[in-house]
Specification:
- The complex is a heterodimer of chains A (315) and B (323).
- With 315 residues, chain A is an all-alpha fold.
- Chain A has helices at 13-17, 25-69, 74-77, 92-100, 109-140, 146-156, 161-172, 180-187, 190-202, 205-213, 218-226, 231-247, 250-255, 264-271, 279-299, 301-314; strands at residues 102-103, 107-108.
- Helix content of chain A is 71%, strand content 1%.
- The longest helix of chain A has 45 residues, at 25-69.
- The radius of gyration of chain A is 29 Å and the shape is globular.
- In chain A, 38% of the residues are buried.
- Residues 1-35 of chain A have low confidence and may be disordered.
- Helix content of chain B is 76%, strand content 1%.
- Chain B contains 14 helices and two strands, in the order H-E-E-H-H-H-H-H-H-H-H-H-H-H-H-H.
- In chain B, strands 1-2 form a two-stranded antiparallel ribbon.
- Classes of the chains: A mainly alpha (315), B mainly alpha (323).
Chain lengths: 315, 323
């Protein structure tokens, strides 16, 4: 404490000296701080807001471009800054999405939507049931081979889907162009089991034990006691699984050649590659593709952010 | 005497635990196995088995829908992959592309994510709105992001980026073929990938930042540490593990790049040589050459890279958490 040089000139020395008790050196600083900070704080806040707004505009510009473009005449979408001006708006592009996708050779938009919904519901729904049950069995039930089985599942987390896509294609080739082949490989998920497992371990045992003493079986305890108390982890797994299944691309590229079996992302990539491209309709298609996710995201955004951050850290 | 007694005691203890185990074995084995088996069957059938099949296939010359039975090939697929120019040149190109993607994306994306997270780690009004804004692209399917950016990066005068460049330079710089030119093709893929993915890293880092106790900043301020000193000595050490995690995660993700490259090469004139990735190469080997064995060999190499990175990640994280 020998140093303590007069770094910043003290703004109001008289005030300090007039205090009844002679303040210690550290207290002097404490007193000085609010004075110094209040001016920089306001400046910093303005700077932060400005930065956030500029970055925010940069970030949101592509989304704005997409949504506005989906209502503009096709010729205006790809025309420099004009693509940004919300004028000549109409639902024409949305009509064209349905009109130009209206035969078995192109597939139908509603069919793509239906495929995507069925695939996602199948993967998410099936996954919640199958993976949570397995996780409960690993976390709470005692059976021979349990630890080995769980270690095995944890080991599989390391294998990304991309590493098994080629052999799966070889094995499932006879089943190509079906919805089932787009659902089944993704239902059981080692990472989801792991997420459920860590959550179940953290639940208090006492309630479950009471239920067991009351004669409820292992499965009954799981369904009646554990599931209702595990909403956060079910929400997390739902969000993560839904995001990946809705955007799934590699597997459909490998397995789906029949237009009527395409999910939305694959259908979009085909739609935007067919000449002549109607960019207005492509943007309308894109908006419709992201709309369900976006609505769910905006409604439950807090959980989205928590899920993604939490799952990544646990993984 | 004593030893005998001890032995007797220990054997008695042994039997009691055995009895206990047997009891539990009886009551919970059936539900336990039944509840675990659907998921177990699933991961065995769709992850473990195909993984073994990938290794087996990589030792065969095998094609889809072929009347000829698979021919055992030994390590020929791997030899070709690494030495036969027909296969090795595009494959090495793909590896290099994945690497250069990682070399740029990992530091840049982490830095942007860190900057955004620090900006958002303030208790000022409207912060939740901005967090939503930066995170939003994460929920966008990559296929859509790609199509959207394809138009932004369009090579004509009417492309959005070309318009911006021409506006900023007063028309001095003309239209550039961002996707087609070998010098900017990878940059374009990187740009759209960062836009889509940075929010993901941002929320992970933000979670790390919020774990740093506020007192440390207060102590630093008492010591008159400036903003930079606080960043260097409080923020960075506080989120060191998170940063390492994010860096390694981003590296692994860099090797899994596929959707954007596939869509842009196949439909938007993206420079193929400058951007083909390992997974793209595997897909092309199946589609254009119907060479499943070769694609399986590529897959195995891909897997080895990812596992190596994952193991490095785990080891580094374990070390730092022990420190």
């Amino acid at each position: 404490m020998t140093a303590s040089p007069p770094v910043a000139p003290v703004a109001t020395p008289s005030v300090r000296e007039s205090r009844p008790t002679p303040p210690t050196k550290s207290r002097r600083r404490v007193i000085r701080r609010p004075v110094r900070r209040s001016s920089t704080r306001a400046a910093r806040r303005t700077r932060d807001y400005l930065l956030l707004i500029v970055l925010g505009i940069l970030f949101v510009a592509p989304v704005y471009y997409l949504v506005v473009g989906s209502f503009k005449p096709a010729a205006e979408v790809l025309s420099g800054f004009a693509g940004f001006i919300p004028q000549h708006l109409s639902l024409e592009n949305y009509r064209n999405v349905f009109a130009s996708l209206s035969s078995d050779s192109t597939g139908y938009f509603l069919q793509f939507l239906g495929n995507s919904l069925l695939i996602s519901v199948g993967i998410v729904g099936g996954g919640l049931i199958v993976n949570s049950m397995a996780a409960y069995s690993f976390a709470r039930l005692t059976w021979r081979g349990r630890n080995g089985a769980f270690q095995f599942v944890v080991l599989l987390v390391i294998i990304p889907f991309e590493a098994v896509a080629v052999p799966l294609l070889y094995l499932l080739n006879p089943e190509r162009n079906t919805l089932l082949v787009q659902i089944l490989p993704f239902v059981a998920n080692a990472f989801s089991v792991f997420l459920f497992y860590t959550f179940f371990l953290g639940l208090p045992k006492s309630v479950e034990e009471a239920a067991r003493l009351d004669g409820l079986g292992a499965f009954g305890t799981f369904v009646r006691i554990v599931v209702p108390n595990s909403k956060p982890v079910f929400a997390t797994v739902t969000i993560l699984t839904f995001l990946t299944s809705w955007g799934q691309f590699l597997w459909p590229v490998l397995m789906v050649s029949d237009p009527t079996q395409r999910p939305l992302p694959l259908a979009l990539s085909v739609f935007q590659s067919q000449q002549p491209v109607d960019w207005g309709a492509v943007f309308a298609f894109g908006t419709l593709l992201v709309l369900p996710v976006l609505v769910v995201f905006l409604l439950f955004q807090r959980y989205f952010v928590q899920s993604v951050a939490g799952s990544a850290v646990k993984g | 005497m004593a030893t005998v007694e001890l032995r007797a005691a220990s054997s008695a203890r042994g039997t009691t635990t055995k009895v206990k185990k047997r009891k539990k074995f009886n009551s919970e084995t059936l539900p336990g196995v039944l509840m675990a088996s659907p998921a177990l069957i699933g991961v065995i059938g769709f992850v473990a088995l195909p993984f073994v099949v990938a290794i087996v296939l990589s030792f065969f010359n095998v094609r889809l829908n072929s009347v000829r039975p698979p021919i055992f090939f030994g390590i020929e697929q791997y030899v070709r992959l690494f030495t036969d120019p027909i296969y090795s040149v595009p494959f090495f190109r793909a590896l290099v592309n994945n690497l250069s993607f990682a070399v740029v994306v990992v530091p840049v994306q982490t830095a942007i994510a860190l900057a955004l997270a620090i900006l958002l780690n303030r208790k000022i009004r409207g912060i939740a709105f901005f967090r939503t804004l930066f995170f939003m692209p994460v929920v966008f399917p990559m296929a859509l992001v790609t199509v959207l950016w394809r138009l932004i990066l369009d090579r004509s005068d009417n492309g959005l980026l070309n318009s911006v460049v021409s506006f900023l330079t007063g028309g001095a710089v003309g239209a550039h073929d961002w996707l087609g030119s070998p010098t900017t093709a990878m940059g374009s893929v990187i740009l759209l990938s960062i836009w889509q993915g940075v929010g993901f890293q941002m929320v992970i880092i933000l979670a790390g930042l919020q774990e740093i106790p506020q007192e440390r900043y207060e102590a630093a301020q008492l010591d008159r540490a400036g903003a930079w000193a606080q960043f260097r000595h409080v923020t960075v050490p506080g989120i060191r593990n998170t940063l390492i995690f994010v860096v390694l995660l981003t590296t692994i993700l860099s090797f899994r790049v596929f959707d954007q490259v596939y869509i842009l090469i196949r439909g938007a004139g993206l420079n193929q040589d400058a951007t083909r990735t390992v997974l793209y190469q595997a897909t092309v080997t199946i589609f254009d050459e119907n060479n499943v064995g070769q694609a399986a060999a590529i897959t195995v190499v891909f897997f080895i890279i990812v596992v190596a990175l994952t193991l490095v990640q785990r080891r580094v994280l374990r070390q730092t958490s022990e420190d």
